[in-house]
TrEMBL record:
Compartments it resides in: Membrane
Entry coiled-coil feature ranges: none
Chief place of localization: membrane
Protein name: ABC transporter G family member 24
SMART domains: AAA
Pfam families, sorted: ABC2_membrane_7, ABC_tran
Length: 711
């Protein structure tokens, strides 16, 4: 029988016929079948053995063996295509018995080929194999299973058999499948599933408010527990302080009435203070002796950023000190946002020159990203969450994973109290469709999202834009409170009021071209510009007046022949910085250089004293900042859990919209399932499960055919 199996060249001829859609019904014939020679093996369902003579002439004579002897019907379990004179095994899932001649139609059942009249031929096995649409008759019929290509059995009760099955599939419930079942009847279960989903949606719609209220009540209870723990720890610290003071006294008191009266007075005063202590007072007291967070000082020397030939920042030298609030101002296009990007280390795509020092040493800002907070100009809050929920989500994801829940609660309470959000803590932030808190309150929530992660460097992009004077002062007061904790705060502001301007510690004034016109303490800015002949008129806001001078809107007479465009150059000379080449030509036109050098020498002495005072602080906090780099935030799975909780809470607050969406999906699924007529030969790609066949040729080499790759 192995001499009747197809070789590699014959299989290739058949595969080429399958690849050509027009020749699937009439496969390409081999050189053994032509007008001069048409053996019995050329008939469909027949095959011949390989002869011992030389191959016949033809285009593939070197590969296709000559077959003209011992022709016989195709064996059961194999198929013999017309014009090929060889046979190939049917794949699993097919049913290829010997055909039976139908006297009425003249066809070989169960196949559809006809024997040639007048010749001594009989029906063989199958004559073709392709996809399920083209050769539907070759596969095991539905309601039956075929463990081999020559066996066919009826599907028993409690099981179902799809077309091309090699074994029975057990039904989920026995009563849903009768004898010869094609598929499991799941209509009843589908109705039950739809009813359950509808009940769940109705339950979520009606109980979402109760669930959220319960969650808020549990959060409030957690805050109260944290308050009690903070109260106890604060009282214990107070008692320890009093005991320490008594021990360290040089003069030991007598054990008389005086000591008793003093002790009674101390206890009475302590009890009175504890009785009057509010929760916010407890939180502030609990954090009074908490160690300051590690500081982060950012210094830059000759920092220049450019794109192509355009310079966005030029020779920027200075530093942002911890524990101070710095205001960055300047006209539009002066490079304020670029300056923030440089501070944050976002310099990809720029050509960078100069040095950036972190705590006095070169480093990358990306290494400190876990302790750097950035508040963008746009809102980053979730409108369908409350103020407290927004802050709590940020603290859970960005604080150390080893921090206790009570400690996180105390941090949250401190931020809420500092930003004045206590009265609206349980209010929804709101969206465009649903009104929530005011714009000023949203700004403060934006800042609070970054404050709860306890950053060492806090960058804010226009935090006071759109706020009234009172809201701006409240926000800046909170930032100053953060600075007292050792935080390095830097903010871009536009047109601050005089009161707000004086609440900053340092002032950076940028001119067009990314040049610094002033960088120093707030209280020295008017003195510095007055030395150049620029005096702020009465009832004028100093920062607005200085920006108008830089823009040339206000004309004023300066010392010598100095013009507004020379102000960055004068600042460089004032501090002894290196002057870039493109500003060297302006040095010849300034007559006040000698005087400026005199002023610079005085300022340099002052700055050297300040630098000597701050050097020890920087080195002292350097080791602490290295420890802070090891902050272990929650892992991916923990953060994923926080995200799931947040999304679930957001969806519960949109119960009506969610119910409508799922109702539409259910109705659409029911309609599509009712209309669609899914069969084995039309579901997905045709013949998706009936595409693999293995053929062993006369040399014992197994050839695997994947019909899906061919089609």
């Amino acid at each position: 029988m192995t001499a009747m199996l197809c070789g590699q060249a014959e299989i290739e001829l058949y595969i080429e016929s399958l690849a050509n859609a027009s020749s699937r019904s009439n496969p390409r014939i081999s050189p053994n079948c032509n007008q001069n020679s048409w053996a019995l093996g050329c008939q469909p369902g027949w095959a011949c053995m390989v002869s011992g003579t030389e191959p016949s002439d033809g285009p593939s004579a070197e590969l296709v063996p000559q077959r003209a002897e011992s022709c016989r019907p195709c064996c059961p379990g194999f198929f013999c295509p017309r014009g090929l004179t060889c046979m190939m095994p049917c794949p699993l899932g097919a049913y290829c018995p010997l055909g039976t001649l139908n006297d009425t139609t003249g066809l070989c059942d169960p196949y559809f080929y006809q024997i040639t009249p007048g010749k001594s031929t009989a029906c063989g096995a199958a004559d073709s194999w392709a996809d399920i649409v083209t050769t539907n008759d070759i596969f095991c019929p539905p309601g039956h299973y075929c463990p081999s290509t020559t066996q066919k059995y009826n599907c028993s009760s409690g099981h179902y058999c799809r077309k091309g099955s090699t074994d029975e599939k057990k039904c989920f419930w026995k009563n849903t499948c009768k004898d010869n079942a094609i598929k499991e009847n799941l209509t009843f279960y589908g109705i039950i599933l739809i009813a359950i989903l509808g009940f769940v949606l109705l339950l979520v719609y009606n109980c979402s408010g109760l669930f959220i209220s319960f969650q808020v009540k549990m959060s409030s209870r957690s805050r109260k527990k944290a308050a009690k723990r903070a109260d106890k720890s604060a009282a214990a610290r107070e008692r320890w302080k009093l005991a320490k003071e008594l021990i360290l006294r040089h003069e030991v008191p007598t054990e008389g009435f005086g000591h008793a009266y003093n002790q009674a007075d101390t206890d009475r005063a302590m009890k009175t203070n504890n009785d009057k202590l509010t929760f916010s007072g407890v939180v502030s007291l609990a954090t009074e002796i908490r160690p300051r967070r590690p500081t982060l000082e950012v210094a830059f020397r000759g920092l220049t950023l450019s794109i192509g030939k355009k310079k966005l920042l030029q020779c920027v030298t200075g530093k942002l000190s911890p524990g101070r609030v710095t205001a960055i101002m300047g006209p539009s296009g002066a490079g304020k946002t670029t300056f923030l990007n440089a501070v944050l280390g976002k310099t990809s795509g720029y050509k960078k020159d100069g040095v950036v020092l972190i705590n006095g040493l070169p480093g990358l800002m990306q290494s400190y990203k876990k302790i750097i907070g950035f508040v963008p100009q746009d809102d980053i809050v979730h409108g369908n969450l409350t103020v407290e929920e927004n802050l709590w989500f940020s603290s859970c994801c960005r604080l150390s994973k080893g921090m206790s829940r009570s400690h996180k609660v105390r941090i949250l309470e401190r931020v809420i109290e500092s930003l004045g959000l206590k009265e609206i803590r349980n209010s929804l932030v709101g969206t465009v469709e649903k009104r929530g808190i005011s714009g000023g309150q949203r700004k403060r929530v934006n800042v609070g999202i970054e404050m709860v992660m306890e950053p060492s460097l806090l960058i804010l992009d226009e935090p006071t834009t759109g706020l009234d004077s009172a809201s701006s002062q409240l926000l800046l007061r909170a930032l100053r409170h953060e600075a007292l904790e050792g935080v390095n705060v830097c903010a871009v502001v536009h047109q601050p009021s005089y009161t707000l301007f004086n609440m900053f510690d340092d002032f950076v004034l940028l001119a067009r071209g990314g040049l610094i016109a002033y960088h120093g303490p707030i209280y020295e800015v008017e003195t510095y510009f007055a030395g150049l002949g620029i005096k702020v008129p009465d009832r004028e806001n100093p920062p607005d007046y200085f920006i108008d001078i830089l823009e040339g809107i206000v004309k004023t007479k300066m010392r010598g022949n100095v013009t507004p465009k020379h102000l960055p150059l004068l600042w460089m000379l004032h501090n002894g910085y290196e002057v870039p080449d493109d500003l060297q030509k302006d040095l010849e036109n300034i007559d006040t250089i000698r005087e400026l050098y005199t002023v610079r020498s005085i300022s340099s002495e002052q700055s050297s004293e300040e630098q000597s005072e701050n050097t020890d602080s920087v080195h002292r906090n350097l080791s602490q900042s290295n420890e802070l780099l090891e902050r272990k935030t929650p892992g991916v799975f923990a953060q994923y859990g926080y995200y799931l909780g947040r999304v679930a809470k957001q969806r519960l607050r949109e119960a009506t919209q969610q119910a409508v969406d799922y109702l539409i999906l259910c109705i659409a699924g029911i309609c599509i399932g009712t209309i669609a007529r899914v069969r084995d030969d039309s579901f997905g790609v045709a013949s998706y499960g009936y595409t693999i066949m293995a053929v062993c040729n006369e040399k014992g080499v197994i050839i695997v055919i994947d019909l899906m790759e061919i089609l």
